[in-house]
Design brief:
The protein is α/β, with parallel strands linked by helices. Helices cover 57% and strands 7% of the residues. The protein has helices spanning 4-17, 25-41, 46-60, 77-93, 120-135, 151-162, 174-187, 205-218, 233-246, 263-272, 293-300, 306-316, 319-330, 336-349, 352-358, 367-370, 376-386, 390-394, 404-417, 421-443, 450-453, 460-473, 481-484, 502-525; strands at 108-113, 139-143, 166-167, 192-196, 222-228, 250-254, 276-280, 288-290. An eight-stranded mixed sheet has the order 3-2-4-1-5-6-7-8, with helices on both faces.
Length: 526
């Protein structure tokens, strides 16, 4: 993730204060130093770093930590500290999730501006696709970059890929193209116009004059600056220069999936006062997301982003099929076909490292272990399942007995998938751990419709229960998910000491008993 440097700094800081009952200048000094170092290494503006640390200090130092919340849950000093950091990060990143301004009297006009090479043309198409899908808008792309060779042809081809019309003229007058494009949108009853403009290697008078004339001609409701997150603080300086001349509405930050250090994202709002509205998270045209400050802050702190994860999930899942699968799971039915479907869905959501970064497991994974995660592992495991017969997929028990028949089946599957027999046995073991977890979730009443229940897993109590389940199953985290993703091994919950305490077991049994009693009441009413 782009914020790996910053995330590691916060992890180091928490280790420095773990076990403290009161936060003081003395016992937090090393923690603040770790955060400061990571923010500066990430190329965050120095004044922004100083203000951030000062705000966190005011919220934490000399305050007596209340050891119980209103709900009765225990709160530690490090919980208190991380909450203060989270709140300040959300504020630093822009507070509430911002939105584009819509025109109530005609097409909404978005003028994309930025330096050459920032990705304006590609992100014009990404934005059109994103707003068409998420807000049901009817977009028109306007190719007004008259200087870069083939820029207009590039946008035309991108428009074809996403089935969005593209308007341009042979004219060398960019302002005329923009004006005529808006007129065309009105005549076709389109409600969104996205104008791709020319860029320069640096901000200059010619570029700014043309953009100012274009702004006057089309009166855009939104002027969005497309900036490359890889250029760090230069991105913030560029934003300030464009804002001074054009009055920006917001920012689209590109290449957030790359090796950028994250300083631009953490500085742009504070320095320029302009919100990041969208972030580019990959090369394909579907890789654009609404920027959610709270979700990003949670990811930086290793807490995951359940809402973001669910958004990714809902983009690729067949909801009707998912609901049927959930009903089957709650009844204890889970076979290798379900296992394979799960792989397929996760594969469509994007790189597994990005998915894990958004999951609540993120904070439990050492960076070194996360680096071992490979998407190829899904391909290998899928190949093993695909080499099974229909009967073996629906009756996994055929592969766990010590009979000659089971050994023969495993040998055949290994040969057919070009894997070792040990690989097949390991996958079978992981499958049954996953099945145990699914059945236990059903027993705890954690199932239900995917779209309504999965976000609930982000709630502390349910996540705590799932972590306890993982400990009880042992080896490989959440029901073997760690090994399933490749390389995580025991780093996620699997070999955590202590297992389930007596109080943990009592809580699980209480929930099971409550569910059973509710079921009996319903039966009596019938």
């Amino acid at each position: 993730m782009v914020f790996d440097t910053v995330s590691q700094g916060f992890k180091d800081a928490l280790l420095k204060i773990k076990g403290q009952t009161r936060l003081t200048e003395e016992n937090t000094a090393e923690a603040f130093d770790a955060i400061k170092k990571s923010l500066l290494n990430a190329d965050v503006d120095l004044n922004v770093v100083k203000q951030f640390l000062e705000n966190v200090r005011k919220k934490t130092i000399a305050d007596v930590v209340t050891l119980k919340s209103k709900s009765g849950q225990k709160v530690t000093a490090d919980d208190y500290f991380i909450k203060a950091c989270h709140d300040e990060l959300v504020e630093l990143l822009g507070g509430n999730t911002p939105e584009i301004t819509k025109n109530t009297k005609g097409p909404t006009v978005i003028l994309l501006v930025g330096l050459q090479g920032a990705g304006k043309t590609t992100h014009a198409a990404k934005l059109a696709k994103h707003l068409a899908q998420t807000q049901k808008m009817r977009p028109l792309l306007v190719a007004a970059d008259i200087y870069r060779p083939a820029a207009r042809e590039q946008l035309r081809l991108l428009g074809q890929k996403i089935d969005v019309p593209v308007f341009t003229l042979e004219s060398q007058d960019a302002v005329e193209i923009a004006r005529k494009g808006l007129e065309h949108a009105r005549s076709e009853w389109l409600d969104l116009v996205i104008i791709d403009t020319a860029g320069r290697l640096a901000v200059d008078e010619t570029l700014m004059s043309e953009l100012e004339n274009m702004k006057h001609a089309v009166s855009p409701q939104n002027i969005l600056l497309v900036i490359d997150s890889m250029i760090g603080q230069d991105a913030v300086r560029t934003a300030s220069a464009f804002d001074n001349r054009l009055g920006l509405s917001g920012v689209i930050l590109t290449k957030l999936d790359g090796d950028a250090r994250g300083g631009a994202a953490l500085s742009v709002k504070k320095v320029t006062g302009k919100n990041i509205l969208f972030v580019g998270t990959g090369e394909t045209l579907d890789k654009l997301e609404d920027f959610r400050p709270e979700g990003m802050a949670s990811r930086i702190l290793g807490m995951g982003d359940i809402v973001g994860l669910m958004t990714d999930f809902e983009k690729v899942v067949d909801k009707e099929k998912a609901q049927k699968s959930t009903a089957r799971f709650l009844e204890g039915h889970f076979d290798f076909n379900d296992f394979l479907d799960m792989f397929g869905t996760i594969g469509k959501m994007g790189p597994i490292k990005d998915i894990l970064a958004k999951s609540p497991l993120a904070g439990q994974m050492p960076s070194a272990e996360l680096d071992k995660v490979s998407d190829k592992d899904f391909t290998r495991k899928s190949a093993i399942v695909q080499s099974m017969t229909i009967q073996e997929r629906t009756q996994p028990e055929l592969l766990i007995s010590k009979s000659t028949s089971a050994r023969s089946r495993i040998a055949r599957i290994a040969k057919g998938s070009s894997h070792s027999e040990k690989d097949v046995k390991d996958l079978v073991e992981q499958f049954f751990k996953m099945k145990s977890m699914v059945q236990m979730m059903g027993g705890l009443g954690l199932g239900g419709d995917f779209s309504s229940k999965i976000p609930g897993l982000g709630q502390l109590k349910q996540m705590a229960n799932m972590a306890k389940m993982a400990k009880m199953m042992g080896g490989g985290g959440l029901g073997g998910l760690g090994n399933m993703f490749g390389g995580l091994g025991d780093s996620v919950g699997g070999n955590s000491p202590g297992g389930l305490s007596a109080s943990d077991m009592a809580e699980i049994n209480r929930l099971k008993k409550k569910k059973k009693e509710e079921k009996q009441k319903k039966q009596k009413k019938r």
